[in-house]
Amino acid sequence: MQQTTTRPVGGPRSAVSHQGDLPLLDRWFGVSRRGSSLKTEILAGIATFLAGMYIIVVNPAILSDAGIPFASALSATVLISFMSSLAMGLYARNPILVAPGMGMNALFTYTLVMGAGLSWEVALGCVFWSGVLFATLALFNVRRAVIEAIPLSLRYAITCGIGLFITFIGLKNAGFIVGSDATLVSLGTIDASLVTFFLGLVATAIFVILRFNGALIMGIALTTLLAAPMGRVWGDEVMVAWNGLAAWPDFGAVLKVDIIGALKVAYLPFIFVMLFTNFFDALSCFMALSESADLKDEEGNPRNLKRSMTVDAFASMIAAPLGTSAAQTFIESGAGVAQGGRTGLVAVVIAILFLPFLFLSPLLSLVPGIATAPALVLVGLFMMTPISKIDWNHFDQAFPAFLAIILMPLTYSITLGIAFGFMSFVLIKALTGKVREIKPAMWVTAALAVLMLLTTQ
């Protein structure tokens, strides 16, 4: 007797039919399949943009200390943020913001240019080559070998040390901390600028505590508004100067990168440090977001990790020719994930929101240094989170981590903090009979650190 089969309602054919009825954006990004909606994805993109848009002002402010004109740095910041976030959405299909990273811009300005004396064009060349190496690691998918070589304690310590360094820069830029012949550093003069900064810092902290979307950009805006009349009320100091509303983008820093000039043996440690910092920041960001929003594949790894790391790597390469420090994934992407964002549509929305600011450099240039300083201080606070994960009970782990953390702000150099952290780890393990715990990559890193000290000090 021939048996007949019937296709159950809701089976594959009806699923295909249902998918065909969905809007194009929904089908392309798999919005419904991820348990989200177009409205949710758009709102999540807005939330992430508000949380991370402070970089539009803060990054040019830091890069201008390296000699890159503010307007040029702003145009480069907006362009790379647009291009790399768009690529993250369309290619990697992840809800992640990619923009010039905090820590990377500080390393670029205060270590390479102001510390080691590189021109900003050569420093951009170092950014480019670190991006080339990052892309190589991403394309050949060798992240596991690199990850296993660096001890967790040092990974956490580097993030914390960069956080302290960024906080120190914020306090210095605000005049809250000044140089002193007697004590090296001391409290600055209490004047209109210092009072405005402190009020802005407290207000920004309150915005963060109350979990306002865009807390840092709200703090920057409020501090700027306070600064406008404060100088005139207190005295004759003009802290905010109106330069106009809009202008055409300034591409003065585009293609000014000195790729050949960066190919010196003495600059290899700088390139490696940028590679290391960017690589692990990207990886840790993907890991954290995948855990918080269950953005994982069938094997439990972060979803589309290889594609996401590839986007991050090429974003670093492209950043240098555009005239800015390396771009990287932003942990502020968690704001959109918390809103329910699950697909690459979130990143596309973020990218589009960046574009109007390409024409607003005169308006944004009125933001004084004391207005961006509270954001720097609080970004440093956010980066201190991993300090509780360091194993302080085992001195062979704690000592190198402590050196890396404390030496970054005290030597005013991210590179030196990392170098002494790595060198001390290798020496302690080698001299206490634990040579087998030193992976080959750590030996190479320690050797590069020694080379850097011999050639740059």
Description:
By secondary structure, this protein is mostly helical. It contains 20 helices and four strands. It has helices at 12-20, 24-29, 38-52, 55-64, 70-92, 104-113, 120-139, 143-149, 152-173, 192-209, 215-234, 268-293, 305-322, 334-338, 345-354, 361-364, 369-382, 395-411, 414-431, 440-456; strands spanning 98-100, 177-180, 184-187, 327-329. The chain has a two-stranded antiparallel sheet with strand order 1-4. Strands 2-3 form a two-stranded antiparallel sheet. Helix 6 crosses helix 7 (120-139) and helix 12 packs across helix 20 (440-456). The longest helix is centred in the middle third of the chain and has 26 residues, at 268-293. The termini are far apart.
Summarize the structure.
With 457 residues, the protein is mainly alpha-helical. It is built from 20 helices and four strands.
Mean pLDDT: 85
Pattern of helices and strands: HHHHHEHHHHEEHHHHEHHHHHHH
Estimated structural class: mainly alpha
Please state the CA-atom Rg, rounded to the nearest Å: 23 Å
User: Oligomerization state of this entry?
Assistant: single chain
Strand-residue proportion: under 5%
Shape: globular
| Strand segment count | 4
SS element count, helices: 20
Low-pLDDT segments:
1-17
Largest sheet: 2 strands, antiparallel
Strand order of the largest sheet: 1-4
Terminal-residue CA separation: 90 Å
Q: Helical content, roughly? A: 55-70%
